[in-house]
Amino acid sequence: MQDRTQQALDQLLVLAAQTGDPAAAAALARRWSRRLTLHAMRHVRDPDAAREIAQETWLAILAGLPRLADPARFRAWAYAILRNKTADSIRRRRRRPESLPEIAVGPPEDDGSAEVRAALARLDADDRELIILRHVEGLSLAELAIVFDRKSKTIKSRLHSARGRLRAELEPKGASHDITDRCTRR
Hints:
- This protein is mostly helical.
- Helix content is 72%, strand content 0%.
- The protein contains nine helices and no strands.
- The longest helix is centred in the N-terminal third of the chain and has 23 residues, at 22-44.
- It is globular, with a radius of gyration of 17 Å.
- The model is unreliable at 97-103 and 108-112 (pLDDT under 50).
């Protein structure tokens, strides 16, 4: 999860970038590019495509940054843009004759168990993304509401259901995994 100091730094960088400070925009990009690229990798599992999606996301972020009214919403806003750019990329790739790579559920350096990754892979894309954004990226319910363009109560309910489906995927195998325990406590 992102701590308050990091959130405050992001907000200051957003404010400075909104005033036209190129160094602030570059610092913001340095802080977020890797995270956004890794999140794109969870969907496309192709490093080149993930980098392209992240680059498209940054172009959209930089273009829209002057219109971002609340710098505290930057993180959720950035993930929402990434989510849309990823969906656009997947749609474009589906129109091509080549097949799509399978969707990954975590960055290559994830140290989670193979069973949890496999169970996450069996969930539908929205459930998987909701769990990852909440429990890996640390977004709050309010931020998830922005990313998914839904009310916080709806997100809370969907997250609860997604955790239940993840638990059901794990339980038949007799697995007792830390992620399901952590998910039920939040």
